[in-house]
Amino acid sequence: MKYLLLIVFSFMIYTCSPKKVKYFHGYVYSENYIPLEGLKITNQYDLSIGTYTDEKGYFRITKGDNFKGRFLYVYLDANKIDSIQVSGVQGGEKINYSFVNGRMDTLFIKIPNKDPEK
After folding, report:
1. Rounded to two decimals, what is the model's pTM?
2. Phi then psi for 73, rounded to 5 degrees?
């Protein structure tokens, strides 16, 4: 089953400052701007590090010392339906972060037969 995924990030640059990333957080909405509750958000390498979106589509995961990887995975039931890139480098420049403390990023996603009308 194919999922049409639309990812919209606010691409403001989060500078590499002395401020340490303490947690990842943000919102997951349908493409119709409706919060998606009950989606599991996990670390890409350790599925035990994760949480579920609440009734507002909000999630928060503490970034411990054992957190590895550049992505968070998004699950509906037992199916991985999307990923969120939380860190990245372009052209060898400084690391940019998304979905971290101090930012309010949002993932917009379409899930067939689960996406209510606006």
Report:
1. 0.71
2. -105, 145
